[in-house]
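A reminder before we start the practical. When you read a complex entry, don't treat the lines as separate problems. The point of joint prediction is that each chain is placed relative to the others, so the output describes one connected object in space. Small molecules and nucleic acid strands, if listed, are placed in the same frame. In the example below there are four entries. Take a minute to note the order of the lines before looking further.
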Amino acid sequence: MNEYFLSILVFSPLLGIAVLALMPKTQEVAIKTVGFLATLPALVLALVAFIGGSDHLKKYDIQIEWIRFGDYEVFDLFKIDYELGLNGFSLVLIVLTAVISTLAAIASVHIKKEWKGYFMLFLLLEVGMLGVFAAQNLILFFIFFEITMIPMFFLIGKWGYFEKEKAAYSYLIYNGLGSAILLIVIMVLFARTGTANYDALAQLMAVENANTVAPFSETLKFGLLIALLIAFGVKLPIFPLHTWMLRVHVQAPPAIVMLHSGILLKIGAFGLIRFGMGIFPEQFKSIAVLLAVLGVVNLLYGAFLAFKQSDFKMVLAYSSISHMGIVLIGLGALNEAGIQGAIFQVVSHGLISALLFFLVGVFYERFHTSTIANLGGMAKGMPLTAGFLLAGALASLGLPGMSGFVSEFMAFLGLFEEMPILAAIGCIGIIITAVYLLRAVLGMTYGKANRDFIAVSDLKSVEFIPVVALLALIILIGVYPSVLSDPLHSTLETIMLGLGG
Amino acid sequence: MSGVPISAYLTLALVLFCIGLYGALTKRNTVIVLISIELMLNAVNINLVAFSKYGMIPSITGQVFALFTIAVAAAEAAVGLAILIALYRNRKTVNIDEMDTMKN
Amino acid sequence: MDLDTLLSYQWGAMAPEFIILGVATILSIVDLFAPKRFDRRILGWIGFAGILAALAALMNLFAVDTVTILYDTFKLDAFAKVFKLLLLIGAALIMLLAIGYRPKEGMEEFKGEFYYLLLAGLLGTMIMSSSGDLITLFVGLELLSLSSYILAGIRKKHLPSNESAMKYIINGSIATAVTLFGMSYLYGITGTTNLAEMTNVLPQLNNSQYSYLMGIAFFMLLVGLSFKLATAPFHMWAPDVYQGAATPVTAFLSVVSKTAGFVILIRMVVIVFSNTQAGATGVDSVTPLLFKLQDFIAVLAGVTMVVGNVIALRQRNIKRLFAYSSIAHAGYLLVAVTSMSVFMFESIWFYLGAYLFMNVGAFAVIQLMTANNDNEDIAQFAGMYKRTPWLAVAMGVFILSLAGIPGTAGFIGKLNIFMGALISEPAHYILAALMIATTVVSYFYYFGILTQMFFRPSPVDGEVEKKKIPVGIGVAIGICVLATIAFGLFPNTALDFFHTNFGGFQ
Amino acid sequence: MENAWIIPLFPLLSFLFLLLFGRRLKENSAYIGMVLTLASLVYSLVVLFERFNHPTYKAEVTWLTIGDVQLTAGFEVNQLNALMLVIVSLVSFLVHTYSKGYMHGDGRFHIFYAYLGLFTFAMLGLVVSPNLLQTYIFWELVGAGSFLLIGFYFYKEEAKAAAKKAFIMTRIGDVGLLIGMILLFWQVGSFEYDAIFQAVDEGAISAGMITLTAILIFVGAVGKSGQFPLHTWLPDAMEGPTPVSALIHAATMVAAGVYLVAALFPLFAASEAALMTIAIIGAFTAILAASIGLVQKDIKRVLAYSTVSQLGYMMLALGSAGYVAGVFHLMTHAFFKALLFLAAGSVIHAVHTQNIEEMGGLWKKLKLTAPLFLIGTLAISGVPLFSGFFSKDEILISTWVHGNTFLFWLAVIAAFFTAFYMFRLFFMVFTGDARSKQKEVHESPSVMTFPMIVLGILAIVAGYVNTPWFGTFLGDWLVADNEALGHGHIEGPAWIMIVATVVSLLGIYLAWLIYGKKSIQRDWLTVRMPLTYNVLYNKYYIDEFYQLTVVKATKGLTAILSFIETFIVEGLVKLVAGIVHGLGIIGSKIQNGQVQAYGTVAFVGLAVLIVIFALTGGYLK
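Here is the predicted structure of the whole assembly.
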C-alpha cells in the first residue's frame, strides 16, 4: 500500500475525470458535485501523510523503470524512472495543493457553462500540480509541469472574462518560454550525466569534475543556474517577466486564479529551492545577492504599482508579484531563517491569495465588477464578505497572528543578517503593502455605499466553507507556525548542508 | 583519345548544368523549363560517362548509371508534359509565372 | 548472370517489396479492365491489405540477419528494416485516408490510379531504404518522385491541384538534377556507385583537393535531398504543393516522402561523408569530413526551424499551415542529424514514427473537416468541439503532440533529439535553444487551431450536423490517437523494439 | 502569578464568542465583555499583589524553530508588567461598562464589543510579553484593534480615512521597530529582553549599534505613541466612538510606545544619544501638540492633542533617564485622560455635537459629568494635590536633573499651554450660556457615570503612590532589583514644584480671563496674529506637508514605475513579438508563388554554402 500511496494520491483526480466523462453534460449539480468529490481522495491522503509525520516519508517512495533512451542498460544511464517521493517541503506543498484544489472546486459553483469540460480540465490540472511536487526526477517534474500548462490554457481561454484568449496566449507563451528554458537545463543535465534523479544529480554536481558522461565545467553549471532562475522567474514571477500573470489574474475565473496564484506560482519557488539550491548550491551562493536585489525590486515594484490600480484583481495581481519578492528575499538571504521564511511565504501566500480570490469570485458573482470605485461601502450590504475581505487583506499585509507575518518576518530576519541595507530598503515594501491593500479593501468595503445592496445576499452556506477553512489555516500557521516548520525541518537541514552552512 | 583531359569534360558538364539551371529558373514557357531541366540531367550524364572513362578508377557503372538517368529523365519529361496539359486545360496558359494562385 | 546465381539470392529478403509491387501491378490491371461503374474503393482496400501483408512479411524478416543481394545493390539490414516499418505503417494509414477521400468534383475514374501510384511511391521509398548502391538509390528516389508528381495532380479538374503538381515537378526535377550532379562527383572520385565499396575507398583518399570536391558533392546532395525533406534552402515548394494537393497526398508527402528523404540522407550522406577525411594533413586527416560540415547542417536546421515556424504564424489555410509546420519538424529532425550523437538513429527513427502518427492523424481530421466545400481556412474548425467532440479531442491530441507537449509521442521525440544535441562535446546549445524557442513560437499557431476548435462558436450555429466518418478514416484516426498517446506514455515499447532490432548501424 | 497568561485570554474569549454568537445576543453582548474583562481585572489585581511579595516570574514555550534558534512565546510578570496589566484591564473594564450606555442602540453593538475584546486581548498580551518578537506581534495586533475601532463607523468617509491613516502611520513606526528588533537579534541572538539586557550589560554590542537599534525601536514608539513627526494620525483617530478614544487613544495603546521604551529602558540607557533623541522628540512633541491644542474647536481633538502632548512628556521623562517619572505619568495619565474622554463622551452623548463652540452652560445640566470633567482637567493641568501634579513634577525634576535645561523650559511652557487649553475647554463647555439649541440635555445613565466616578477617584488619588511627601512607594518598587532603571526617586530642587504650580495656575487664570470672565476678547489671537492662529489651527500644516511631499513622491514613483511597466517591460515584449511577426511577414512575402523563385532560393542557398565552405575550408588559396 505504501508503495502506491503517492501514485494514488497524485492520480486520484483521474478517477473523477473518468466518472465525468461518462456523465451527460447537462446535469450541472451532479457534475459539480462529482468534480468536488473527486478532489477529496487526494486531500484525505495528503492529510494522512501530513499527520503521519515527516520522519517516515521515505516509505512512500516509489521507483519503477519507465523510459530508457539509448542502449546503455549496462551502465544504467539515460533512464527515466517513474519515481515519486516526498520530503517535508513537497509534502507541505502537496497538502496545500490538495486543500486549495478542494476549495477551488467549491468555488467553481460560480462557473456558468460547460461544467463537464471545466471539471475534467480542473482535475487534470490538479494531477499536474500534485505530480510536480511529488516527482523525484527532473523529467517527470517537467512532464507534470507541462500538464499543468495545457488545462490552464483552456481554463483561462474558455471560462475567463472578456480578454480571456489574450490572457490564455500570454500565459501560454510566457510559460512556454519558461518551460522551454527549463527543458534545456533539464536536458543538459540529463544528457551530460545520464540521470535526472534529484539526489543523484545533487551528488554529481557537488563534486568538481565529477565523472559524468560529458564534462561539466563550472561555467556551464553557472549558466544552467541562471537559466533555471529565468525559467522559474517566469513562473514565480520575477520582474520583468511578470506581465503575463497580471492578465491571468484578471481574466481567469476566480476559482482558477485561486489555483494559479495559490499553487502554480509556487512551483517557481519550489523549483528554485529544489533545483537551484538543491543541485547547484555552490553557484547559488554567488547569485544570492542578485536574488535578494530582485526580491526587493519585486517587492517594491509590485507594491507601488498595486497602489495605482483601479481594479481589485489587478491590485491582487501586483500584490502577488510583491509577495513573491519576499520569497526571493528569503532565498537571497541563504540562511535558515531566510529559506524557511521563503517556504512559509510560499504556503502563506497560497492560502491568502486563494482566500482573497475566492472572495473576489463571491462579489463578482453578485455585482459583475471588481472595480474598486464601484464597490464602495460593501460592508453595509455584505458585512460578512467585507469582514473576510478585510481579514484577508490584513493577513496579506502581514498582520501578526496570521501566516503572512511569520513568513515576512523570517524572510527579513534572514536578509538582515546578510544584507542589512538592502533589507532595510525592502522594509519600505512592508509599509507600501499596507498602503495599497488598505486603499483597495477599504475603498471597496468602507465608505459611502455607491450602490443598492438590498437585493444582494451575503455569503451563502456553501461559500462559507472555503472562506472559513482558509482563514482558519492562515491563523493556524500564524499562531502556531511549528505546524509548518516541523515537517520542513529535515528538508531545511539538507538544504543547508548542501549550502555548506 | 588522350588529348582531352577530364577537366574539360567536367567543365563542359558544369557549364551545361548551369545553362540548364539558368533556363529552368528564368524561362517563362513551361515547356522550355522542362527542356532546360533535361539539359541539367544530361550534364550529369556527361559527368558520369567522363568519369566512367577517365576517372581515377574507371568503371562501367558510370555508363550504366547514365542509362538509368536517361530513362528517368524521359519519364520525368513525360510526366511533366502531362501535368502541363492538365494545367493548360484549366488555366489556359503555359506561362510558368502565371501559376501563382497559391502563395505566401 | 545465370539462373543459378539468380536463384541463389535470398529473394525472401525482398518479400515486402515484391508484395507491394505485385499488388500495385494487380491494381493497375484491374483498374484498367474493370467497368466504369465498378466501385474502385475496393481497390483501395486491396492495396491496404497488400501493405498489411508487406508489413507482415517485414516483421517476419526481423529475425533474419543482414542480407545483401544483387551484388550489394539491395541490402536488408537493421536500418532498412526499422525504417521500412515506419514507411509501411505510414503508407497503410494514408491508404485508409485515400479510401475515404471524396473531393467535391468527383474523381471516381482516377481513383484506381490514386491507390496504385501510392503503392508505387511506397515501393520507391522501400527500395531507397534498402539500396546499397547509388543507382538503386536513385531509381527508388525517382520512383517515389514520379509517383508523387502525379499524385499531387491527381485532382485533374482542380486548378490548385494542377498548379501544385506543376510546381512540384519543376522543383523536383531541379532537385533531382542537383542530387544527380552530386552523385556523379561521388562516383567520379570513388569510381564506384556501391556504397559499401565507397566506404572502403574513401578513407584512403587523402588529398585536400578530393575533400574539396567531396565537400561540393556533399552540398549538392544535401541541397538536392533537402527538397525531399522540405528543409531550407529547398523548402519553398512545400506550402504551395501541400495546399494544392489532395489531402491524402499531402499527408503522404509530409510523412512517407519525408521519412524516405531522411532515410536516404542517412544512408548516403552520413555514411559516405563520415568516412571521408576532412583534409590531408594534421587533425583534418583523422576527422571525418562530415564533422567539419556539421555547422553547415546546423545552420540549415536553424534556418529551417525559424522559417517554418515563423511563417506558419501568418497562415490561415490549414494545409498551408501544416506545410510550414512540416518544414519546421524537418528542421527538428535535422538537429538530430547535426548532432551526430549516439542517439542519432534512435531519435530520428522515433521522431519520424511519432511524427507519422500525429501528422497523418491531423491530416485525417483536416480531410474530414475540409471535404465538404474545399474551404481550408482554419475558421472551418471553429466550434468543432461542439459539433464533433471526439474528433476535436483527437485533433487536440495530435496538435499537442506536434507542439511537443508531454504525454504525447511528440514530446518524447523532442526529448530524444535534445539529448543528442546536448550530449555531444561541444554541445549544440545554440541549436537546442533555437529549437526550443521556435517550438514555443509554434505554440502560437498550434494553439490557434485549438482556440478555433474549443473556444470559438461554430459558424453553423443551431443545426449540429452529424458528420459521418468513413470507416477507414475513423480507424486511421483511432490508431493515430492511440499510438500518439501510447508512445508518449510508454515510449519504451518503441524504443526497446528499436534497440532489439537495431543493434547498430551497417 | 504562574497563570498570568490567562489574563489576556479572557478578552480573547470575549472576542471570539461575540464574533460567533454576538448577533443573537444583541446588546446583551455587553455583559459577556464586561464579565470577561472583569475577570481579567480581578486576576490582574491578584497578580499585582502577588508581585509585591514575589520575584519576577517568567515562563515560555518554543514557538518557532529556525535552524538552531528557538523563538519562544511566553509571559513575564515584572513590576512594570504587573502595573500595566492592572491599568489596562481596569480601563478596559470601565470602558466596557461605559460603552453599554454610550453605544446603546447601535446596530453593530456586538461587533463593537468584539473589537474591544480583541483590542484588550492584544494590549494585555503586549504587556506580558517577555521578548521583543512577541511584543511586536501584539504591538501590531493592538494596531489592528485600534484600526478596526477607529473605522467602526465604516460608512463615514472620515472614519475610513482616519482608520487607514492610523494604520499606515503607525506601520511606518512599526517598520522601524521591526528593523531595530531584527538588527538587535543578530547582535544578541535572541529576542528575549533578559538576553538583550545581558548583552548590553556585558558590552557585547557596539555602542553605535546600540544607538542605532535603540533609535529604530524608538521609531516604533514614535508611531504608536503619536510623537512628532508621526503624530498626525492620533487626532484623526477621534473619528472612532468616544469610549474607544478613551481606551485606546488615551489610556492604553498610545501609551504602548512609552511602555516599550520603558520595557527596553536598559538598552536605551546604554546610549546617551538615544536618550537624547527621545528627550528631544518628547519635549518637542509636548510643546507642539500643546500649542495646537490651544485653538482647536472639537472637544475630542483638544483632548487628542493633549494626549499627544502628555505622551511627549512621558517620552521626555524617559529620555531624561526618568524611568519612574515616565511610568508614573503613564499611569496617572491613563486615569485622568480616560476620565476626560469618558466625560467628553458623556457630554457628546448629551448634546450630540463635538464642537465646543456649540456648547456652553452645561454645568447645571450635567451635574455629575461636569465635576468629574473638572477633576480630570485639574489633574492634567498639574494643579497640586491631583495625580497629574505629582507625576508631572517628577518629569520636570528628571529633566532638570538630567541637565536638559532647554527641554525643561520647553516642558514648563507646555505645562502652561496645557493648563490654558484644558481650562479653555472646560469653560467653553460648562460655563457661560447654552449656545445652541440643546433642548433636552440629560445626564448620562449610571452605567456611564459609574466608570467616570471610579476614574475620577483614581485621578485624584493615584498620584499619592509616589510623592515626595508621603514616600515614593511606586518608584522604589518599580526599580527594585534592577539598577539599570535608575533610582526610585530623583531629588530635585524644590523651586521646580513651585514653578510648575505657578505656570499651571497662570494658565488656568488666563483661560478664566478669556473664557470665564471674558475680560479678554476671545478672538484676541485670531485678530492680532492671524498667521499664528492659522498655523496653529491648521496644525502647522503638517498633514498638508506630508501630502505634498511623501504622498506626492509616492505617486510620482508609482507613475514612473507604471511608465516602465507599460513602455519598457511590455514594450520589450511587444518588440520581440513584433520582430517574430515581422519575420513572418517577410518570409511569407518571399514565398511569392513563383516556382522559379523557389528554385532560385535553393540554388542561391547551395551557392552560398559552397562559397562559404570554400572560404572557410581554405580550399581557395
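Discuss with your neighbour: Chain B touches chain D through 13 residues (CB under 8 Å). What might explain this?
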